[in-house]
């Protein structure tokens, strides 16, 4: 057994053999899913609860499908976040879940660290399905699996993660995973969308898209949320407009031409076409693996559910 | 990515004659040249050669300078044009006339017009209007914030690409520290700097003169000199935080220049300019409520004036700009506190600066550096030198000729000079734009 943690809360801190184990297992689930075999009885009698404090149709559906394909009982619990007493609500929820004897808990929350707090209080194995601007470990795993299936490796690849690094949990998880596995990672975006001292995470920082994309094997585009543009309310207005963003940081054929000829384009979805990515690139079957990422998502989540249920399963 | 429209003026008027300037004192601070009895050859609108004994090519006119100084055309890094929006004060055409009379061949125009220069099309328009004048290259600043309203960032990347040389909200300070941080950080991605009007707006609101004894005697609402230092100190820290480049316009106080000197010594990307009123006049020029001496920032105390002069000499200040702000009579014929601030400055830029050369406070070469290559280094675009191959933008002046400034008889439309009645020594004799004589 390669994976020795009770939960999957973050990529940061995982060792290469643990990541490799999850990817190898996911690989086998890809083949199984494609063969048409489903509903194995591996998780029969076990309960997976999808506890989503933030809307996310695609991640929730992916976890749901993964759980069902392994034979688990899957419950979706959408929880409306109230603006007050979030901490109290979270702990109340933990007590409720314990009473239900939940085995696996996939948590999505808009506050960084919320899954860590839950993990301290619940008996179930907690899977971080995205917390605030902290981490989104299963997304990084599915991205890595997609890359590995196309390139045969992660070591030595040059990967550019482009756009709103500041607010992206996907970027953080990908940075940790890819640098751990020996890829060279660049982050590309305007200075206003760069977190402070991001270079300390082991990445190279670029503000010029063409320079940042030069000779890269993989381009991961991030979603730019509308509220980051224009206006001064709160911490908004980090870029002046969608048209300016697209001109300088949107991925189109011209900018893609600076990457290696066999580079791949990825996006965690949902895409803002014409803001961070041009449709001609997003839909280019020769370069875009965006749809394949979704398929890999189910396999990766099956591997995570399988692995965590083994870690926590009493020795038989 | 930061590819920009060409800053070189098109040689629209093809018939620039070839000219051999003889018997001139060649002064080119960019290369350290100061050569009495020099010659300079202009061919095809560019500087073909310089030195002595060049010989006259066939067809070239010979112009005997009679010992006058021949320097690069002046580069004015801060001037408001009346256009668009305030054509009753000044048009680009009339500003170009005043600029040519002042020896200015390149001018950076402020964006707080109506509409504000916050759209790429307006940047193109200003550049084209400059070219159409035939005598003045206009380098547009673009707005930092939309409408210069201080609320949200303008499209700095697209504006830069359209040919904006830098960003500023003109006479308005960028008040919000959050927005200034954002602007410095975002502009850094495009290699551009932000020019700040360094005045803390809540301390300056409603003020008409520098706070102190004089304002008290005149009963005018005051603006503390510290309003400038507070903004300068804040923005130096934001420049350090973001790695961005900040430029302070028309610095006027001892405290501010000391802060800037310290920041430069620390290696930060901090630059600044000042304008002639701040090293030639002090608050006494207000006299009995002379509204032509109402400026923004207001005229300061004598010790501040002396500190600005010292900072010009020691390199703390990078450029002298006209800080031209055209006003018409109705803007100024008002009770002092209600009158519009700002002074006309194009025609007097050189001569007021030369007054301090004659006063032995600035060496001539340093003074001309502050008016040519100093600002040109900040603005880019290759103006401000007598280098071979450079466009023949030239200013010829008589260092000693005496004249008097008289509001009402200045070239151009704007007459609101704070130097009204001042006798000056040093006068522009001729101005050339790309080899064509546009004044004198």
Give a description of the structure.
Chain A has 316 residues and is of the alpha/beta class. Chain A has helices at residues 16-34, 57-69, 86-99, 114-121, 137-151, 169-180, 209-213, 242-249, 253-256, 279-282, 290-312; strands at 47-52, 73-78, 104-109, 125-131, 158-162, 184-188, 204-206, 218-221, 264-266. In chain A, the strands form two sheets. Chain A has a five-stranded parallel beta sheet. Chain A has a four-stranded parallel beta sheet with strand order 2-1-3-4, with helices on both faces. In chain A, helix 4 links the parallel strand 3 (104-109) and strand 4. In chain A, helix 3 crosses helix 4 (114-121) and helix 5 crosses helix 6. Chain A starts with 15 loop residues before the first helix and ends with a helix. In chain B, the strands form three sheets. In chain B, strands 1, 2, 3, 4, 5, 16, 17 and 18 form an eight-stranded mixed beta sheet that branches. In chain B, strands 6-7-8-9-10-13-14-15 form an eight-stranded parallel beta sheet, with helices on both faces. In chain B, helix 2 runs parallel beside helix 3 and helix 12 packs antiparallel against helix 13. Chain B contains 14 helices and 18 strands. Chain B is an alpha/beta fold and 440 residues long. The longest helix of chain B has 17 residues, at 226-242. Chain B has helices at residues 92-101, 120-133, 156-162, 177-188, 201-204, 213-218, 226-242, 254-265, 276-280, 302-314, 329-332, 349-358, 364-371, 373-379, and strands spanning 19-28, 33-43, 46-51, 61-64, 69-72, 74-79, 104-109, 137-142, 166-168, 193-196, 209-210, 222-223, 245-248, 270-274, 319-320, 394-404, 423-433, 436-439. Chain B is globular.
